[in-house]
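Crash report, auto-generated. Payload:
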Amino acid sequence: MYGLFLRHFYLIKSSLPRILDLVYWPTIQIILWGFISKFFSIYSDYYNNTLGVILTCAILYDILFRSSISFNMLFLEEIWSRNFTNLFIAPLKLKEIISSLIFTALIRTLIGLVPAILLTSPLFGISILKLGLPLLLLFLSLYIFGITLGLFVSAGLMRFGPSFENIAWSSLFLLAPLGCIYYPIEILPTFFQIIAKGLPLVYIFDETRNILLNGLINYENLTKAYVLNIIYLVCGISLFYFSFLKARIKGTLINMGE
Amino acid sequence: MQATLQVIGLSKNYNEKNAVKDISFKLNKNEIIGILGPNGCGKTTTIGMILGLLKPTSGKILVNGIEIEKNRVQLLNNLNFISPYVELPKKLTVKQNLIVYGKLYDIKDLKKKIEYLSEKLRLGDIINKLTGELSSGQKNRVSLAKSIINDPLVLLLDEPTASLDPETGDFVRSFFENYQKENETSILLASHNMSEVERLCSSVLMMNNGSIIDQGSPEKLIQKHGRKNMEEVFLKLTREKYEF
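Recovered output after restart:
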């Protein structure tokens, strides 16, 4: 397990462009949303004096985005480098592979997000840390969901091969509108509200707005998010195991490569 | 004596296609067996099943008497593999790759092991270079180091000298000859290089269309089919199927 972490740690450590790439997009994203939210805070009644709401939600959404992409990237790196076979003939249990990817994805996520988060204070006078202890719960919840999406996509990559790669990139964009990141669920048409209620994102972002706007924490929202997270995580892990079995039957593991 | 590797009635079907049909063979300790056959005859599929990358449709694979399908991860500690179609991460140095695989195989005293491999495979000058910047021959030596890092009981070689120049190819063959003698490793070699098979293997499995169509020592096969060398035996056996 440590070996697999080390493989990706060496890769990141030895490549400045990779580190810059990890930091660049979250920073740009957060600066962009910083200016957008500044504009809204001045010209919108709803967001009056709540510059932090949109920006905080943008940062939190990036936690989800980066953790999921990081997980997928780690998996894709093995395919791109034609190292997939070497990895799967090493004496590693699937749970060790998953654990190692989860931990390494966390490191990648933090490398990307910490500099961006630190920038928000001098640039916009906003600190996400003001959320206090609930931030940890929100972060963990988003991170778990990000990893779960990563597991779903990696399971697809294993089952269908590199042709599934495009899905890896587009999966998060599909969920973004339904996640109600910047707006309440009531904005969505009724049918989409039903779907959205099945996602932990709705409860996480609703709670974030609640904490920021009302200064209160509603544990019901967080509980719903965690229950859904656990259900999806179990499904994601089960699908990963199932896809591995299917890949062994179909022969995908032996032909994996670009 | 218990075979190091025993394959019993092994078959693999992909939908309607029978990639491997009911093959059986034994690989004893300190033995090198070759698998010869045209492209698509089932060599790589057989190796894939032995490595646990493919689930057999039927049959059994035993390593030291233990069935791999039920003990995949445990037995993978005793196996390793090299193929020109599988690479090590290019953006890692040779040393980093060896550390990573040493950790994955849980090698004790890894530093000493890497020093040994470095000396044995002449990696000293390239140990801190990125693997992706190496020549084919150098990459092959690094892959060799990875393939023996866990002192495997069974080493599976899939066309190990394909795309190598004659000098490097000869180095690889000599390396396997010496390594097998020193470590009593059992080697299964899939190759298209007939002279390589003649030189290294005590026994050869001739495969075509997923089946073993003949087997024996290279000398016996040459004699049996009245040919001058293994290449002619190979051509005879693979063409027989298509003669009208």
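Post-recovery validation: The longest strand of chain B covers residues 17-27.
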